[in-house]
Amino acid sequence: MHAVDESQALESRERLVAFLAEACREYGADPSRVWLCGFSQGASMALGVALSRPELLRGVVAHSGRLLPAFLPASPPGGLRGFPVLWQHGRLDPVVPFAFGLEAERLLPPLGVRLDFREYPIGHEIGEESLGDLSHWLADRLSEARSP
Question: Distance between CA atoms of 47 and 62, rounded to whole angstroms?
Answer without folding.
Answer: 7
